[in-house]
Sequence to fold (510 residues):
Amino acid sequence: MSEEMKADLELDLKGLLCPMPMVKVSQNIASVAVGGTIRAVATDPGSMADIPAWAKSTGNELISAEKIDGEFVFMVKRLK
Amino acid sequence: METQQMTTLVGVLDQKMNRQLKQYLDICARCAICKDACHQYVATQDFKYLPARRAELIRQIYKKYFTKTGEFVPALYEARDPDENLLDELYESTYACTGCRRCMYYCPFSIDTAWILSVAKAILIAAGKGNEMLGQLADAALFKSDNFEMFKDIIVDGFKDIEQQVKGLTGDPDAEIPVDKQGADILYVALAGAHSILPAAVIFHEAKVSWTLSYFEAANYGYFFGDAVKARKIADRFMDEAKRLGVKEVVITECGHAYRVAEIFHEAWSGEKHPFKVRHILEVIDEYITDGRIKVRPDAIKEPVTYHDPCQIGRNGGIFEQPRNIVRALASDFRDMTPNREQQWCCGGGGGLVAISEMDEFRIKSGTIKAEQIKATGARIIASPCENCRLQMEGLNDSMELGIEVKAIMDLVLEAMPLPGSFAKDASTD
Fold:
């Protein structure tokens, strides 16, 4: 799904250690408009739980979370 | 501000009031010795970062509502209401503080400004002015545990990925990262990141100890946010796990505040004595090296290495010698910083500041003294057992061109261990 959608903001979080990928998504969500999306790519496996938990607990939408070629790719939609 | 809301905020101060806090608020002699102890004030010369000034904002509310002189002649005794202006001042000086407690170390009366600022955070949260980012990160951690079945398989899959690297490094196809192991001796509490799991898993494997990995991360943004209830609940996740599994000890990874929360605060918060020991991973590794349970090559690291005492592990946690013993065991050129141990300067990265982007510029500036300390050693590697410290020192390295490598102690240990598999520098992020 993440490959089909064009995101409003791309975040390269490769090499960042958890919880920093979640922190970076959280810091950047305000820079897209409500309804806009962030595509984030991380390499730390901890992000697979962290970023979905952040999205759900903050009332944003996790459109997808996938492992692709050893990387973790997230599409998050700002809802408020 | 509505009178009712002000009454609520004063009520928060009243709830937190005890003999210790009252003494801190009554006794400050305004000697300003603390100004020379605070890395933020020394680096910026900005009055709002002076420790006594930070505490003074709470003291002004205290005078207005808890002393007769301040109640009847507020202008004369600098007594104030917790109005919007005061809260705005309080927000910046409070959430900027790393809680390093170097000011307390030098204060002639041992006034714990960080304690006073924990009350300030409670007041700010009650006013709806708590730091949003830290609050979100605390809520995300609690969401994970409140909806654990939603995340359990994802978390375990992540562990399985790391387990493959453990097998490679140890050369043991049966090496594992045990999870939920009833009756294990040790519950190891890592960060969510692989970097804090992989080296510990290899070390535990080589030491042939009975251990199990916690499902939950040690980091506690509830503590940084200043919400004691959330902070306790975040720590409860692995403390309850430890009780359920019947472990003999909980070992906290290389994380400063997580160690202090687990070892110093949690028993007081929960009102229960832990039925197990709590130790920092470096206490355990030092013991393994001393007892010969793991081997490290004595000259594995030839470049000069220095060590930064994280405030929450050193000055506030009492762990000074074990990390130095470990570094000396594997590095041929160890150079301590000056000052060090209890007097170590804070690097500027604690208190959750690395997560607060609006404080990035200030945070890096506040690390000027640390950067000078590092430069003075001539070291090429700086080791420190705290994630926030390492993030800050990487920032200092980039912005001030220190030309150093910032490392966790466990990474140095892994490099120094004679393992069948080679230690790939980026193994934790593959």
About this structure: The helical segments of chain A are 20-28, 47-57. The interface with chain B takes residues 14-15, 17-20, 22-23, 26-27, 43-50, 52-54, 56-58, 70 of chain A (CB under 8 Å).
